[in-house]
Amino acid sequence: MQMALLMNSSTSTHVLYPALKTEEPKTENMVSIFDSNLLQNQVNMPKEFIWPSMDLVNTAQEELKEPLIDLSVMKSGDEEAIASAAELVRKACLKHGFFQVINHGVDQELINDAYCEVDPIFNLPINKKLSAKRVHGGVSGYSGAHADRYSSKLPWKETFSFVYNHQNDSNSQIVNYFKSVLGEDFQQTGWVYQKYCEAMKELSLVIMELLAISLGIDRLHYRRFFEDGDSIMRCNYYPPCKSSNLTLGTGPHSDPTSLTILHQDQVGGLEVFADNKWVAVRPRPEALVINIGDTFMALSNGRYKSCLHRALVNRYRERRSLVFFVCPREDKVVRPPENLLSKNEARKYPDFTWSSLFEFTQKHYRADVATLQSFFQWHSSCNL
C-alpha cells in the first residue's frame, strides 16, 4: 500500500456533538503518500480511511433551503433592495450560516480557468507533490489525505493550499509561490490563482459589508477589519472511491476561519447539518457558496452560526472544489464591535488573535463543531 504513517503519540478524544467525536492532531510530523489508484486496488479499504458509522449515517435526501443572494444590489444604490438582501442573509446566518451568491462579479471564465489548473497539480508524480508538501503546523503546500496531521479517519482527498496576503504590494505573490515550489512550468497556474485570489478578496469585502448591514452596525466595520487580511486559498481534489460508503472526503467540521467562499463542481457532495439532519448544498455553476466560520461567529458575539458540514466522495466520478478562506491579519484582536452588544448582552467569547486559534487547530486539535469552546479551555489551561 502506497501510504506510510509514522506516529508515536497517543490519541485523545472528546465527545463534542451528538454522535460526533474528534481526534487531536499528532504533535510531530508524519510521512504520507496518497495514491488513490493503488489504494483502490487493495482488497479491503485501508482502515485509516474508514470513518465511524455514526459519521456516515443519514446521507442527505433533502437540499438545504439556503437563500440565493443577488450581489448586484450592492452596487445599485437601491437601499431597499440591499436591506432585503441583508435580511435574507441575517435569517440564514442566525439559523445555519450558509447562503449562496449570484451576480458576484467574479468572471465565470476565471472560475473555469481555475478549475483547469487543478488537475495539473494533482496529476504530478508523487515525489514532486511530496517535495511541495505542507510542513507541520503550516498552511501552504500539498497534503495527501491530511495524513501529515492525523492517524485515523483520514479524508479521501488531496489538497493544495497557499496564503494570499491582501496588502502585499507584489501583484505576483502567488505566481512566485508556484514557481518556487512547483517550478517554472507552473507560472501560468500561478497567474490564474493570483487573479482568482484578487477577485475573491474584492468579493469578500463586499460580503463583509452585507454582513455588517445585516447585523445593524457600521457598514464598513468588517470591511476595514479584513482589508489587510491573510487569507488562504485551497484546491480540493476528491478521487473516485469504490468504498465511498465507508469514508468521507471531508469529515464533519465547522471552519475555524472567518468566512468561506466555495465553488463546487457539478458532481456535488457538500452537506450541512441543519435541523438535526444532513442536507445537501446544491451545486450551482453560476453561484458561490458562502458560509460563516468560527472567527466570524466570535465577531458577531455568537449571533451568526458556524455550522457543521462535510463532503462526500463519489463512487464513480472525481470531484473538485475551489475554496477561499477569508481570514484577518494574524495579529488582529478578534472581538465584536461595541455597538453590536445590547446593554444586557454578555460577551460570549474572550478576545483572541486569529493566529492563536489557527495554531490551535493546526497543531493541537481537529476542527469540529466545538472548536472555539475547546480553544478557550486549552488557552486557559496554558495560562495557568
From TrEMBL:
Species annotation: Medicago truncatula (Barrel medic)
Gene: 11424005
The entry's keywords: Iron, Lyase, Metal-binding, Oxidoreductase
The protein's name: Gibberellin 20-oxidase
Protein's UniProt keywords contain Protease: no
Domain Fe2OG dioxygenase: 228-328
Stretches that traverse the bilayer: none
Cofactor requirements of the protein: L-ascorbate
GO terms, molecular function: ent-kaurene synthase activity; gibberellin 20-oxidase activity; metal ion binding
Enzyme class: lyase
